[in-house]
């Protein structure tokens, strides 16, 4: 993986996600997309993950697995619930702005890392086999934005 490509992918994924979110009327924005979450709640969890990635990267750089990996079996339900709650009171516009701000924080953090840290193997593994890198973590975040964008588009297609 090339760091510039992953960074550009993340920026593009966030932009496309937020363009879609901003296009929604308030009723649709608050409508359930999944059995559990509305677009507001999805956006809140993503804004929080932008910031959480900074903490995760620091943990990985210390050679440790970020704590949220302990919640893989529950799809990180507790972490996500906390993030959704943290941003619950923000309006649609405020939450989009917060998502952009937390992305900017993450990108500034990544740009200040020592050369090579994004791709360096710090010895962190999931299930003793999958290498966890900073760059891989950013790529997974971009994939999460794309996944949730697709969920919202499906909800719009089905009018549910």
TrEMBL record:
Name the record gives this protein: DinB-like domain-containing protein
Database matches in InterPro entries: DinB-like, DinB/YfiT-like
Source organism superkingdom: Bacteria
Species of provenance: candidate division TA06 bacterium SM23_40
Coiled coil regions, renumbered to chain: none
Domain DinB-like residues, every copy: 15-152
Taxon lineage: Bacteria, Bacteria division TA06
Pfam families: DinB_2 (PF12867)
